[in-house]
Structure formats: C-alpha cells, structure tokens
Amino acid sequence: MKTILGLSGSLRRISFNSGLLRAAAELAPDGARIEIGTIRDVPLYDGDLETAQGLPAAVRRLQSQLAAADGLLLVTPEYNNGIPGVFKNAIDWMSRGEGLAMFVGKPVAVIGASPGGFGTTLAQSHWLPVLRTLKTRPWFEGRLMVSRAKGLFDDDGNLTDDKTRAALSDFVRGFATSLQTARSR
Questions:
Q1: CA–CA separation, 17 and 110 (whole Å)
Q2: What ranges in the chain are assigned the alpha helix state H?
Q3: Quick check: 185 pLDDT over 60?
Q4: Exposed, middle or buried by CB within 10 Å (0-12, 13-18, 19+), for 133?
Q5: Strand 71-75 relative to strand 107-113: parallel, antiparallel, unpaired?
Q6: pLDDT at 181 (0 to 100)
Q7: Closest residue by Cα to residue 17 from 92, 73, 101
Q8: Alpha carbon of residue 64 to chain centroid
Q9: 87-104 residue pLDDT tens
Q10: Could you give the angle at which helices 85-94 and 57-68 cross, rounded to 10 degrees?
C-alpha cells in the first residue's frame, strides 16, 4: 500500500483546501491511502526557539509522517497571488534538522482551490522553486486548480460537485500510479 502525506495550507475550520484534501483521501484508489497531516500547531519559525528547545512536537510529527510516506500532496490556497505564509512556514520547519533529507527525491503533487476564477495557478507555480530547493520530485503529469470553489463545497466544507470530484479522483489515481511506477523502476 502506497501512503501519501496530504497537507492543507489553510488553518480555517471550514476551508476549501481542507475539504479538497478530505475528498482526495476519500477518493484514493485501491492500493493507496492519503494520510492527512496538519500544520495547525506549527509555530512561526524562530531559530532561537530551535536552538533552545529543538524541533517542536508538531514539526517532529510532520517529519515522521513525511519519512513514512511514499509521496506528498500539497493542497494550497492562494493568498495575494502566492503561497500562504503559514504553509511555507510549516515546510520550512519540516526541512530543519534531518528533515531536509526526507524531502530529497520525494514525489510531490500540488493542487488547490480558490473562490477566484484562476484557481490556485500562481500559488502552485510559486511552490516550484521551493520544491526544487528541497530536491523533491514534483509530479507534472496531472494538474488540478479548482476555481470558483464557493459553489462546489457545502456549508461544512465538503466537496459536493461531481465534476470536480471526478477530476480529483483522476488526479489522485494518476499520482498514486506514478508512485507505483517509480518503485518498480
């Protein structure tokens, strides 16, 4: 069974991106599962804190999940045409200590949902230099940017739109299949 660590870059209780991640986990194909991690308890990066106390428990938990995962799914909002600060902060913390080695060669897929008309096009593009620096293996075979998300989710943040669920299912299946193929090479 292939395990994908899924992270939503939103802290909102009812978030389109957290809902998209939950739907991705529901739609994972046979032979794959998406383990949903959380960035909620990750503090702002502070080198003095790291020196004095080491890595926070929330960061160590994420690093452990990343180390055990075959792939990483980033579900990113787009704030002011870029990456959400809290999401980038969590990835920065995760790369500290032995964490950097956990990213090297790790297959990574990026998706996102936005109430705007362009989905998360710019945020997804802004992740590329970060993923390159971490020496990950970005998956470019599929693309999913959910635009006009307000009408696609219910009041509890659950993805209800059948067309988007089908596209998400295809995306997750493709990413999971790429993990199978990568191991068999």
A1: 11
A2: 16-26, 47-53, 57-68, 85-94, 99-103, 121-133, 162-184
A3: no
A4: exposed
A5: parallel
A6: 72
A7: 73
A8: 15
A9: 999 999 999 999 999 999
A10: 70
